[in-house]
Queue: 3 jobs
Job 1
Amino acid sequence: MKICYFDDNRLGVVEDGIVKDITVVLERMPAYRSPLPRFDPLVAALPGLLPAMREAAVGTAGKPIEDIKFLSPVANPGKVVAAPVNYLAHLEETIADPKTFSRAHVVRIQESGLFLKATSSIVGVSDGVALRFPGRRSDHEIELAVVIGKHGSNITEADALSHIAGYTLGLDMTLRGPEERSFRKSIDSYTVLGPWLVTADEFGDPSDVGISIAVNGEVRQKARTKDLILTVPALIAFASSFYALHPGDVLLTGTPEGVGPVQAGDVLTASVERVATVDVNIRSA
């Protein structure tokens, strides 16, 4: 199933290029009061809601995806965990270009560990990216994004896939410069997710998924997840060995070689196989 938030925070499912409004299903979710949970309530409730979501979609007319404003498919993630330099060719790229990539980038992921991005940086694909600091370079980074479905700590690789709610397309936009990585990557709109969440049962095995990005029609990044240094299960095990993962947490799995600068007016055509191909507009903040 493909699940999305759209327009004015409506809940939808996507079928054959049509978004069907199933917002009524949200009435079945448990109510929360302060202190609020650290997880995303919809993702946490998803296993029990899926039958009702399928039923609500039957006979609903819906709107074509071309007429929809897609918001982030995860509304309230507790954290965004990102994998730095998780493709070998990208590691070689960072080593060869010290003017662009700081010395911290040339350390293997097993040594550098993962990093966190502010959840306030998340937008949907329809929002696009608002560039700050026009005198500095901001780069595109296309990634497969994994959405955690159930709580876990010290998760084993063997059990990791059972903790996944679904997958989506992710753009980890990056301001280049001397500041800490998380600081430069947490600018508003620098984490793009969407256009929808593909549930794990529909998505299938994440070990060989194609991802790519083109800027104004010029392909810059193209790879498959079989080339990841740390696989999706290994990343989940690695992350959960340091902190608990909760429903709705987003794991950005890393970007391949070919990262490059963007500027206001550019159009990114981003693609994750089995999710979607979407255009994302770049503008000035």
Job 2
Amino acid sequence: MKAQFEKISTKKNALHAFVYIDKSFDAPWHYHPEYELTYIVSGQGMRYVGNSIQKFEEGDFVLLGPNLPHCWKDTNNTSGNVKSLVFQWNDNLFGADWTRRDEFHNIKKLLNIASKGIKFNSPKPQIKLNSLLEIIRKPPLDKLLSFLYLLEELYLEEDIELLTTTTFTSNLNLKANNRIDKIYNYVENHCSEKIKLNDVSNLVSMSNEAFCRFFKKTLHKSFFTFVNEYRINLACKMLIETNKQVGQIAYECGYESLPFFYRQFQKFIKCSPLAFKKKYQ
């Protein structure tokens, strides 16, 4: 599965809004020059945006800026079809330089922040879902105007989270995309095993030193920081959804040392595994 530049057609409509339904979220690590607003209706797994890796589930609501690499990877145990609501548009939504006008001042600020990726933590996800579905079902002009009001509302949202670090820049080319996609898939398929630097660097036909430089330059973090981030997010999902003991979860996520697992969990989640589980229960 090769990473790719995604071509989105906005010639017919200024706003491309649709309901995505499939057996899985299988799009590779990709990017496009359009903005994208995505609401997860059903499905769960890992969301990759820039140098961010987080678990996602129903109600996940994210705005991405142009050319920000991303993909959603659902877990193998997802039951039934996955479903999301997607809105895509380019800079010329209302004509050239439309965000420079006073009426769109707040929206301009929102779209500027979107270059880092924004997660909206809506306190009432069902209400948000219903309002988004209503927009998608409207005739083209009503849809566009309603979407404009939606962007204004999103700017006023207080509970938001930036997904990428302030130093992250989207400078990937197709060759780099292909490599990152292979690395993501390898970590996903081998996270319960001992992951060796030599195996991953060989996968993308690079020396260990060149691979480490490439990964740090591309995602602004070391490869093994990325691996631990992936494993800890997976452990969080297992803590919430299963009754397995912490030690078993640590082992299944690829940790041979329980003290090291606890240190990594504290580093990324800022609490102990049991405290995290208690919080969600």
Job 3
Amino acid sequence: MPATDALDAHGGLDLPPLFQAVRLRERGDAFAHACRIAQDAGAGALVHVGRFDLIEFAVVLEPEEPLVSARRAFFAGMAALADALALACPPEKPLAFGWPDAVLADGALVGGGRLGWPADCPEEDVPDWLVFGCTLVSERSDPSDPGRFAGSTSLVEEGFEVGPRIIGSFARHLMVHVDAWGERGFKPVADAYLARLPKENPADRRGIDGNGDLLIHGRATGGAARRAPLLPALLEPTWLDPTNGSVKL
């Protein structure tokens, strides 16, 4: 681990057992760094960046099933993220997902999640690691220009309590969802994610397929399932601005 990239210790995080914090300097990239160290660091390594304007972190996971289905760990990460944010937001503040990876506060983009895996791992093999990463806008330098930031917001603007507690809370909720998956199958994780994904039609029935695709059953399709694929968005996150590697503003 390059000394120029990482700072030691927990950086103020209160993490549950089995998690090990790695704090990066402000210019660091938590997701990229977690993917680099995942093979050696192992499950529970949680990389986070010390900066005031973003909450940025990534955690290493070690799945026990083939890559094609193991990618569903993304939904456990998203559900845990929403649970953590729900504890930090004002009462009655709408908190939702945009399929599949965007986090919306009161209908506006505030950040998102992403997933990484070994580039050389075949779909039918069990990957050595996965990395779930998250970036949230905590503050913006000049939120007074609504035209510049149309469709997006920040946690501070929406009244959230920001700070390292969100990361610690995420880690605890992630353990809950992973344990539920192991004990009762994937349905509890899917239900927790889908509960925050708005329906296009209230009568639609939805589920998560074995490869992570969203399945929508509605009258418009005569009961047949309409499929929204997961993989393309994981390869090109919908919320990510490729010009600066951060949340679209």
